[in-house]
Amino acid sequence: MLVTRNMSSGGAEPKKRRISSRYSGRDLLLEDDQINLIVDSYAKISDKYYALEQMFLQLFVRDDPEIALVFGLNDIPDEELRRRTPFRTHVCKFLRFITTVVDLLPKKDREEELIQIIRMVGRQHCNVKTLSFNAARWLSFKNAMLNTFAKNEKDKTYQPWSILIGFIIYEIKDAYLAHIRTSRSNSLPHVLEVYKLEFRKATAESVSLANQMAVATSVTVAHPMAVASVSVPHVQPGRCAALKNF
């Protein structure tokens, strides 16, 4: 939603955009000029893969080696780590994520999509069972992002990036914690549903086998199911497209 211009004795105040998360209650509030600074400064990063590669090297090797341990990438020299597929996949996935966020940020009718993409990352991190995402870990990740996209606090891009990154971290963390709470509260019903599903599957297989024995002709069934695809910006396919599960 757009915040209208407010008139004061000093003239018109800058127009601001308010992007509100109905999940966390958090607002992202940026001036139009600040959004343009983020978009322009990101576009000027000539080798985005390299920039994020260096960010994750800093995280995995120096700032928080416990992250590398979870993925079996601990105690590996930088040059070797850069060649490992799990590490490269990490870089490529984050490259796709942050590129999509920056691409959606100035688009006024896609705020909900932006929020959903950010929160999806938080839910996905619930799959990392052996790593605790404590306050220090969120902070180290925030600092790593700031150092990558706005190295100098005196630079005019620093405040806009700081506001955006703070919002991203907050939404990721909120989605992560919400998903954990939901998973715990639904754990017993989930077990029962899995049991019922397996029972129905076994029954269906038995019926299917009986039908196959009784029917002499085969029937082809078309499945009217369309898989939705999300268009994301171009992200240097030379180093990412060849990776599986990207």
Automatic annotation (TrEMBL):
It comes from the Eukaryota. Transmembrane segments: none annotated. CDD domains: Mb-like. Keywords: Heme, Iron, Metal-binding, Oxygen transport, Transport. SUPFAM superfamilies: Globin-like. Residues 56-164 form the Globin domain. One of its GO terms (molecular function) is oxygen binding. The keyword Signal does not apply. Gene3D superfamilies: Globins. This is Globin family profile domain-containing protein. Belongs to the globin family.
